[in-house]
Amino acid sequence: MENLRETLMLLCDLQEKDIKIETLKNKLEDLPKFAEHKKQQLSTAKKEFDNRKETYVKLNSLKKEKESLLVSKESLISKYTTDLNNVKSNDVYKSCLLEIEKAKADKSVIEDEILQLMEDIDKETVNLKQYEADLKKTESEINGEIKNIEDSSLNMRQEIEKMKTERDSFSKSININILSQYERIRENRNGIGLSLVDGDSCGACNMVIRPQLINQATKCKELVYCDNCSRILFNKKEVV
How many domains does the chain have? Predict the structure, then answer.
């Protein structure tokens, strides 16, 4: 067999490339989540503004209702005042006076309510303008962040394709049979097909390795596999 140590060294380099590619792919997969989170933030901000606007509209609508009710009370006062000049009975006269007083009392309450509503509307107008300005600022910032995420996504895709091309070219320098075994193991072991010996343990699964396997992995005369995770074992420490 060709120099196995050199082949496994190449395989180490290949795995580093694979890890970098997978790391970048994982980051790429997370980007849509970040973008969606930003879109939800913007949606929440818009809903808050719409709620404020709805409150403003309701206050104005209520003010109009109160103003309409005030007009009706004033019309009622005018009607009973006119009736006073035409009544011929003291009882009816007193009844008209009572209705006038009641209408005036109601009018006074309504006027106070309208004044309070006007104050509330003025405050809400100021708040609404501030919310609108804040929303525009937030919308601009979030749209900018989403644009950056989309740009990053495109750049990452291009970088991944470039790295894959380089990786495929590099892999051609590795023994096809060993490469095939590495690929098979990597596919079933979370992207890690080669494990470096770490002291007396497998660097990938951290399980203790039999001394015999460590010795074989160090001599590099044949491929050695971890008893626990089945990854190819390699000890970079050369036999002295």
Answer: 2
